[in-house]
């Protein structure tokens, strides 16, 4: 059996897991050490708790030389990226000044791996490197919120979201920080099941495994840039009117544009219709109330602008894959 395997969805967990998956990490200069170490930590814990080697990993740099992280710590690597073979996935670990470090040798090596059908991922700003190589074309992806606006400007055709992480076929990207934990937990779950992931998350004292539905908490100007003040005003209006939602015509009128203009702005910069964004905003507020308070579910629904419990439950289940009552049981 080959070491190279394809990831499957969580619903298609393999009964007989494959041989140890070989994960390669490309350390870019000034990479974010904590994001990288969190990712490796999940793989190490998966091996420890399962009692066997489910994963093995190799560290690469573009030239085989040691790499200095953004924290100033120097890591020795195993080899240059050109020598990488038999990889189940190659993950690019980004950090500061990523545009400067996205050189032609890096791009060429990544393109060669892509031609071999090697799955590719990016941690933190690693997704910028993949985008520069043209390896995110046709894929959904994410990046750290500080880089969202600039990346959208540089790669206007890419579908770049504000999610914590995105798994789209054979591309895996995350926003950095502790979101690399969520990405790797979901990848482990897709191959080895949720029971192992639950044990890993308990070891890491994670209260829950976040999903792709969870968005980064970031100032709006970083998500869309500073050039769209009317869009910012529209979102602020929505955030201020959760219990009694405004109509889209009212929102458009208050910010001084037409409803059609409002829809274009939301679709371009937030990748969703304004009505969908407003709904997700209300449901996100509801989820916080369910997880952090003991307010009855019906009161949470009313507080977040839903007139009936069944409608609230359906909308909540459609977005988060579970009814509000399940979130409350988690809290209990």
What's the short version?
With 332 residues, the chain is α/β, with parallel strands linked by helices. The chain has helices at residues 33-50, 98-101, 104-115, 126-132, 145-154, 179-192, 194-203, 220-224, 229-240, 248-255, 259-269, 274-292, 297-303, 309-320, 324-331, and strands at 21-27, 55-61, 67-68, 74-75, 79-80, 89-93, 120-123, 140-142, 159-161, 165-168, 171-174.
The SS-based structural class is: alpha/beta
Task: Please tell me the overall pLDDT.
Answer: 88
Question: What proportion strand?
Answer: 5-15%
Please identify, by name, the CATH architecture of the largest domain.
3-Layer(aba) Sandwich
Q: Could you tell me how far the N terminus lies from the C terminus, measured between alpha carbons in angstroms? A: 45 Å
The dominant shape is globular
CATH class of the largest domain: Alpha Beta
Write down the domain tally. 2
CATH homologous superfamily descriptor of the largest domain = Class I glutamine amidotransferase (GATase) domain
Order of helices and strands: EHEEEEEHHEHEHEEEHHHHHHHHHH
Count of discrete alpha- or pi-helical segments spanning 4 or more residues: 15
Which strand order does the major sheet show? 5-2-1-6-7-11-10
Helix content: 40-55%
Protein model, in words:
Helix 1 (33-50) packs across helix 7 and helix 6 (179-192) runs antiparallel to helix 7 (194-203). The chain has two domains: 10-203, 3-Layer(aba) Sandwich (Rossmann fold); 228-331, Homeodomain-like (Arc Repressor Mutant, subunit A, Orthogonal Bundle). Helices cover 47% and strands 13% of the residues. Residues 1-16 have low confidence and may be disordered. It contains 15 helices and eleven strands. It is α/β, with parallel strands linked by helices and 332 residues long. The strands form three sheets. Strands 5-2-1-6-7-11-10 form a seven-stranded mixed beta sheet, with helices on both faces. The N and C termini lie far apart (45 Å). It is globular. The chain has helices at 33-50, 98-101, 104-115, 126-132, 145-154, 179-192, 194-203, 220-224, 229-240, 248-255, 259-269, 274-292, 297-303, 309-320, 324-331; strands at residues 21-27, 55-61, 67-68, 74-75, 79-80, 89-93, 120-123, 140-142, 159-161, 165-168, 171-174.
């Amino acid at each position: 059996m080959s070491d190279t395997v394809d990831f499957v969805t969580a619903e298609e967990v393999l009964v007989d897991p494959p041989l140890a998956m070989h994960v390669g990490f490309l350390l870019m200069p000034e990479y974010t050490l904590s994001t990288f170490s969190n990712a490796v930590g999940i793989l190490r814990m998966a091996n420890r708790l399962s009692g066997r080697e489910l994963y093995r990993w190799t560290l690469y740099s573009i030239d085989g030389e040691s790499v200095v992280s953004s924290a100033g710590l120097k890591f020795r690597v195993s080899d240059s990226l050109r020598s990488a073979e038999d990889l189940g996935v190659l993950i690019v670990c980004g950090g500061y000044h990523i545009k400067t470090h996205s050189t032609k040798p890096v791009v060429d090596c990544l393109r060669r791996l892509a031609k071999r059908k090697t799955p590719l991922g990016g941690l933190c700003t690693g997704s910028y490197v993949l985008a520069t190589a043209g390896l995110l074309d046709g894929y959904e992806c994410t990046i750290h919120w500080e880089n969202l606006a600039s990346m959208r400007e540089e790669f206007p055709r890419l579908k770049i979201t504000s999610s914590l992480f995105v798994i789209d076929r054979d591309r895996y990207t995350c926003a950095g920080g502790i979101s690399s934990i969520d990405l790797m937990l979901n990848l482990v779950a897709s191959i080895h099941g949720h029971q192992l992931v639950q044990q890993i998350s308990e070891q890491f004292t994670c209260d829950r495994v976040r999903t792709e539905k969870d968005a980064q908490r970031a100032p709006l100007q970083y998500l869309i840039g500073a050039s769209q003040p009317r869009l910012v005003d529209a979102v602020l209006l929505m955030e201020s009117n959760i219990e009694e939602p405004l109509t889209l015509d009212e929102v458009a009128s208050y910010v001084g544009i037409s409803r059609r203009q409002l829809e274009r702005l939301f679709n371009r910069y937030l990748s969703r219709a304004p009505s969908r964004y407003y709904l997700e905003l209300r449901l996100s507020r509801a989820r916080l109330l369910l997880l952090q308070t003991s307010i009855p579910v019906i009161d949470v629904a009313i507080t977040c602008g839903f007139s009936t419990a069944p409608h609230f439950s359906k909308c909540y289940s459609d977005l988060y894959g579970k009814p509000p009552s399940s979130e409350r049981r988690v809290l209990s």
